[in-house]
TrEMBL record:
It holds the Pfam family Methyltr_RsmB-F. GO terms for molecular function: RNA binding; RNA methyltransferase activity. Keywords: Methyltransferase, RNA-binding, S-adenosyl-L-methionine, Transferase. It comes from the Eukaryota. S-adenosyl-L-methionine binds at residue 331. This is 25S rRNA (Cytosine(2278)-C(5))-methyltransferase. One of its GO terms (cellular component) is nucleolus.
Amino acid sequence: MADFYVQAGRALQDILARRGSIKAVTAKVGEGKDNARAAGNAKRILALVVNTLSFRSTLQTILTKVDVAAREPKWFGPGSPLNRTKGALQPPAPTLASCILLVLMHDLLFTSRGIQAAKAWPPRERLERHRSQLHAELVRIQLRMGKSHPEELRSGAEERRIAARIPRWCRVNTLRATPDMVVQQLTEQGWTLEETETISKESVFVQSRHVDHVFAFHPGATARLMQTELYKSGALILQDLASCFPAAVLDPLRDESVEVTAMDATSAPGNKTSHLSALMQGHGSRYATLVRMLSRAGCLAREHGNVHPKKLDFLSLAPAEQGAIQYMLLDPSCSGSGIVNRLDYLSGKDDEQDNVEEVDPVEKGSALATRLANLASLQEHMIRHAMTFPGLKRFTYSTCSIHEEENEAVRSKGAGI
Ligand SMILES: C[S@@+](CC[C@H](N)C(=O)[O-])C[C@H]1O[C@@H](n2cnc3c(N)ncnc32)[C@H](O)[C@@H]1O
């Protein structure tokens, strides 16, 4: 179990050093030879890391009063042997010992079971020497903030309240089923399609007014939806409404009567690719990366679909050699600032299909400005590159960002409109 806390501390260190998203980092740390065990491990690490981050500001306030690193320098100071663990990042990243301290403090102060490592493990033993003072500080913070329970100190309460009101959007994958078939099966399972603006009950769903074959469900219905055969077979794909617009707008067959070729330039993980594939009704050829998702959605050419995935750097493609490409969906890396964060990973109802790239909700100020400038420069470069494809008739540019710098500004500079 000591190893578990070291792995969780490593994941936390990677996240704080901004080396990846929470999901990506914890999945990587949990990796091992035994897949089932690794998956279980990754889930537990994810839960501990997410919870530690939720209480991080409280934990750090406590540490300003009870400076564990100064009191126990051998295990939590800069010279700790924990900092020499294989793979530990070096400064300017926060030390591994300080990250392990946070995850241990989380379990000590916020769980009834306490730290789940051998009593003799020195970091546990050293930290627990300060247990009563740490608890006293926690109670002081609670009183100061007028909270009756430590759980109320968790940050992000407002975000969670909002998340609980956001519908769960699903797209019918017309390569697997017709919308009528989906409605019929759902109805047989106790769901009701209503013509209403508000989804009052978990069993009610409504049709999108904007994009064909897209339905909105109650946010609390996610787990039940994921149990359905429709979801498991790839006939129903969890995909936010906003993310359904690019393929719907591009719609390569809209004014074509002959076979066409389209490219999804930055396709992984593949939601928009499979949408585009479905809109092309099995015609044409195109590129994508995420074979697994495409296979599940029935899009792969080698499995009688219409997508030829290629793992390539879009920017390294020579447009002159791609004269066949007539339509292109360009959905490049972005800040992810507009992504609806349902926090499903907190409840274990993880949605592997959300096209989350990198989401950093704490990012502010000049760090954000620099990151946006870097992203905008790459995005503009991609638009310019797309526009040199000689056969291109139409392309869409989209991001999951709410920042003008990545949207209107990039479009104006890149495409000159
Ligand atoms: C926002 S995501 C795309 C999401 C995808 N359209 C979907 O709906 O599932 C951007 C993707 O572009 C990929 N990417 C970034 N630069 C690229 C490049 N030069 N060539 C190809 N893909 C790239 C990233 O790795 C990332 O997977």
